[in-house]
Structures are given as C-alpha cells and as structure tokens.
Amino acid sequence: MDGVDTRLSEIFYEVQRGLPRQGPGLNESTLQALAFCAGLPSEPAVLDIGCGPGMQTIALATALAGHVVAVDNCEEYLTQLRRDAERACVTDRVVAKIGDMAKLEFPPESFDLIWCEGAAYILGIREALTAWRRLLRPRGCLAFTELVWLDDSPPDEVLAFFEEAYPAMTMARSISELIRECGYIAVADFTLPDSAWWDDYYTPLQSKLPSLKAKYAMHDDALEIVAMTEREIDMRRRHGASYGYHFFVVTV
Fold this sequence. Notes:
Strand content: 15-25%
Radius of gyration: 18 Å
CATH superfamily of the domain at 19-151 and 170-195 and 242-251: Vaccinia Virus protein VP39
CATH architecture of the domain at 19-151 and 170-195 and 242-251: 3-Layer(aba) Sandwich
Number of helices: 9
Distance between the termini: 45 Å
Largest sheet: 8 strands, mixed
CATH topology of the domain at 19-151 and 170-195 and 242-251: Rossmann fold
Structural class: alpha/beta
C-alpha cells in the first residue's frame, strides 16, 4: 500500500511541478497585504511558512531590506525558489529551509513578520494561529491567506465539491472571529482577485494536463488525479463568485 501511495504522491508532484505557484496568489496582493504591516523595523526578520516555489518570498525579499527565511517540506520547491532568488538578485536576503510547519524549531520572538499564503489550512487555522504566535516579536505582524466562502448560499454543486475537498472551509467573518479568540488584533483583510487564481496557477497548470493525459493513458490512478484537477479548474471557472482566497493581516 505504501508503494501505491508513494506513486500517487509522485504523480501529484508531477502535475504541480514547475508551476510559478502551488496555489492562488498574486504579487500585487502580496504587496497590498504587506502595505498593511505598519511599524516593521527597517530590516525586519521575516518567516514565510509553506513557501512552495516562493513567488511571494521573492516579492517580500524585493520589497523589504530584511531577511526572509522560507520554509517548506518539499526540497524541489526550495530548489526552484533558490534559482528564482538568484535571478531576482535577492539571494543575500533569502534562506530556503526544509522544514515541517508543525515543528518549527525557532526560538520564541524570532520574527517581526510571519507570512503564509495558502498553507495555514494544513495545520488548521486555529492551530496555526496558536503555534505561530510565540514566534512573533512584540508588535509583530502575521499575514496569511485562507480559502473562504463568499456566498452565504453557494450552489449545491460547489457545496458538494468542497464537502469533499475542504470541509472545514468557512466564511471570512468566522476567521476574523477566530483571530480575535487567539489574541491577535485584526489590521486588514481583503479577497484576492480572480486573476490570482489564473495568472500564475490555473492557466499554467491547465496547459500541462493534455501531455500528462497522454503520458498516463494506461494508468487509471494517474488519470484520476488529472481528472480531479480538471474538475477543480472547471469549478472555479463556473462558480468562482461563490468562494475565494482571502488575505488576513493581524498583529500582536
């Protein structure tokens, strides 16, 4: 069974390999959220958790004079980040580090700014907010994105899809309440535009799928992963007004 799981994991990574991002995001939205992080020191210490290939890491390192520690559990993504950091001439301000977001081995109050685009759900939002708070310095900021419902009454098809894909998904107001319960002060929040889904994620992802379908034509398990990806993209195209990624910026 482990061999089957490993093979499916490898196929998943092949579907995702080489993409600019591993989920919805946009440099303009990253910088918009960063603009709300008032009071940072001139050279802030930044932690980017679940950085993936690190497009937002590069944006942060370019915009700030401090250092960014970017953590992910996939060495392949970190290799891509290091290459892109070199191209952007920010290698002196970016450290790409293999690690588990559930076991971040940094001393308390190590960072002025913690960043997490699209990965906090892996721990659970409450768990992430609780675990990461100890890493923030006084008056430090945390910025993260989370998938939320934008419609109080989404179509049944979308509800069914996310009951399977992400049953914990909730409204932005519920995340805001959770932020307060965890002892943070809300600074700002906003929904990412539709282009955040397409420009650097779904469009390049979709372009990969025909060749993968041809390559794995005789492998039903691989074709199922490709079909799930196609369904996800189609769901966004038809029902994108019902859900979206939301940026939350908070302080302590």
